[in-house]
Records
---
Amino acid sequence: EEALARFAGAVVVVSHDLDTLVGITNQMIWMEHGAVKMAGDPVEVAAAYRAGVAPPDAAHPVGAESDRVAA
């Protein structure tokens, strides 16, 4: 992933797999209903996402009532 980012300059990854995103990105954006809800450090954004939207027992928190994208 790092070699690709150095070559390309930027790589955009869209996923709900927060653990993978935290492991491979240096910036993360949480979007909800087409608007940026939070951007910054992947660990901080993932923690806020989990705290804000995930039921306590969700392995991959995806709610039916809204669209959420982390990149």
---
Amino acid sequence: IALALVPHHPVAVLCGFLLFRLFDIFKPFPVGWLDQHLHGGLGIMLDDVMAGFYALAVLQIGVKICNLIA
């Protein structure tokens, strides 16, 4: 999810992975809420999906900023 709609570039891939791991580890709302309130595999899976969407949003903003600067 984090790498959807980003350029196929090693830096973009690395940033997407690092952002996903950051959001998956620190679990901002609602990532942590999903993990705590939905038990079993569904909560684990949905918290990863939400972390991926957060990473996608931040990565898209970063790509747009880089395109404006360049």
---
Amino acid sequence: YSKYLRQVGRNIRSVRARRGLRQVDVEEKIGLEYKHYQKIEGGKVNVSLETLYRLSRLYRVRVEELVKAE
């Protein structure tokens, strides 16, 4: 898996943790399948722009914060 996908996954995980949400909470709130969300946070799958947008709305952050490379 690419280094960039892993970084995006870490960013998403970090924001979720700061919001005090569990992975299953994400499934309930935006309808993203739990196992797919695990793969996103693990950097194992590409994330669609639509999913990034939905996550950014849920977490109240800009999409850029989710995809920034360090």
